[in-house]
Every structure is written in C-alpha cells, then in structure tokens.
Design goal:
This protein has ten helices and eleven strands. With 297 residues, the protein is of the alpha/beta class. Belongs to the phosphate/phosphite/phosphonate binding protein family.
Length: 297
C-alpha cells in the first residue's frame, strides 16, 4: 500500500512540475503584436496610379507573405514620407539610400531589409572619340547628372569628383538632365554624363543610341542599397518577424517587383538584412558638400 501511494505521489509531483514549467514557458514567450493593416509608400513614385502600376502587384504579394492587408499611400516627394511616418499615415517606406538617411534622421525610421542590386555603381561616360579618360580631366567641363538627391546620379558622382580633386561648384559645370544626359552627350551639349551602371544600357537602348558611341571612364565601388524601412511606432518584434518573412519569401517578392517596367533594375537582386552603417558613404557626401544639416532632425 505504501509503495502504491509513493508511486502515486511521485507521479502527481512530476505532473505538477511539468504544469509549472509549461506555464513558465508560456509566460516567457512574447506574443507578436501585428497591426490589422499597413500602409506602404515609395519615396520616388508620386501619384496613386504610378504607385499602383509599379508596386501594386508587389504589395499584393507582400500581403500574402505577411498575412496583413496593405494599402498604397502616395507621397508627393521623397521628404513628404517624413511627416507621413511621424503622423502614422505610413507604416512602410521603400527608399533609396539618400532618402533613407532623411527618413532615419527626421522620422527615426527603422531599417527592415535592403535589396542588393547585382550591378549598382555610379559610372562616368564620355563620347567614344573623346580623349578624356579620367575624372581629373573633367576640370572646366560640363557634366550631366540625373537629379538632385539621386544616390547614383548626383550624390556619389559629386563625391567622386571631390575625391579626384575637383570642386563641383567651381571646377565643373553640373547640369541636371535626368535620362536626357545620354542624348545631350551624343549631341555634344555636355562633355560627360554620369548614371548608374544598371540604368546605363536601358537609357541608351530606349533612346535608340549605341554603346559604341560612348566609353566609360570611371566606375565606382558598389553603392549602398535601396531599403525598406518601418515606422518606429511598430513593435520591434513585429519588425523582426516582418524581416524574417521577407527574406524567407524573397524570390516571390522580387519576382512581383519585376512585373513593372520601372523595376527591371532589380532583376537578379537579393534581399539582405539592412545595416545603418552601410549608408555612411552617403552621410560623408552630405558633409563634404556642406549639407549635413539636412540629415538632422
């Protein structure tokens, strides 16, 4: 009898211990608080129709990956995403490297994930018969850049000119021509054109030009990546979970981006964890051109 009671009490004790361990484990697990819906913006796409055209299918795919409803939110310009984040109107923003620094400084945006492009460099191009073969030889010349604030078509080229010993405000004449820099160079209206390496061929082909008419005199190192950032009003656990899901389903997400003509530059890309330090190169440019106050709150 005593032996049976001893066994019974032992089993009850073990069961009680297991119940306590299970309760402790449950208390130790933090439940991820997910919002019912998210709003998504892109810094360089203005207007809801263009946003639907370029990122509508991507957002549908992201909805499936996160299992959360996503609404498109157009912004008029890159800096307009700052008040949208601060006011809670936007939860996720897809931004270029320079725009990321503004969002991080002014809205405390949190890096989610970066998209690493296979061939993303700044290049300087001149006419094939031009004797210029170095950046230093651009002194006194006219250089076509893309647009103010563009990472590959303005900020990094400006840094490269500075590194070559040229002052872009006095030694070189800078004109912002967007994609018309190619035709301007072909027509002799400018002496050089700077553009991203993965955009170069597309621009030339779209304007009926030939690569044989041009030569690349300089190619930068790989540039910082475009990046998805989150509002700091979202919980850190949710952002971590979102990052994990996006990496896990990156092939599906990138494929959905490529359905838009404007996103072909992301072909062959991969999603990687984003680090703030990867963007110090752009911070340095702002400092060198005396615009570092732009990155302050």
């Amino acid at each position: 009898m005593k032996r049976r009671n001893l066994i019974r009490y032992s089993l009850l004790f073990i069961a009680g211990c297991n119940a306590k361990l299970n309760a402790d484990n449950t208390r130790g697990q933090s439940k991820i608080i997910s919002p019912k819906k998210l709003s998504f913006a892109v810094t360089d796409v203005a207007g809801i129709e263009d946003l639907k055209r370029d990122f509508g299918y991507f957002c549908n795919t992201l909805e499936e990956v996160l299992n959360i409803k996503i609404e498109l939110y157009p912004v008029d310009n890159p800096t307009a995403a700052v008040p949208a984040l601060l006011s809670g109107k936007v939860d996720i923003v897809f931004a270029g490297p320079s725009e990321y620094l503004i969002l991080n400084a002014r809205a405390k945006a949190v890096p989610i994930i970066a998209i690493k492009r296979k061939d993303y460099h700044s290049i300087f191009v001149v006419s094939a018969d031009n004797k210029i073969d170095s950046l230093a030889q651009l002194k006194g010349k006219t250089v076509a850049m893309r647009k103010i604030g563009s990472t590959s078509g303005h900020l990094v080229p400006t840094k490269l000119l500075l590194d070559a010993g040229l002052d872009p405000t006095t030694n070189v004449k800078i004109v912002m021509l967007d994609d018309d820099g190619a035709s301007a160079l072909k027509q002799g209206k400018v002496d050089a054109w700077t553009v991203s390496s993965d955009r170069y061929k597309n621009v030339i082909e779209s304007q009926g030009l030939s690569e044989e008419d041009f030569k690349v005199i300089f190619k930068s190192s790989l540039l910082p990546h475009d990046i998805f950032v989150a509002s700091n009003q979202l919980t850190s656990d949710f952002i971590t979970d979102m990052r994990s899901r996006m990496i896990q389903h990156q092939e599906k997400l990138i494929s959905s981006m490529l359905t838009a003509k404007e996103n072909q530059k992301y072909r062959g890309s991969e999603l990687i964890p984003a680090k703030d330090s990867d963007y110090n190169m752009i911070r340095e440019v702002y400092q060198k051109i005396g615009q570092d106050n732009f990155l302050k709150q």
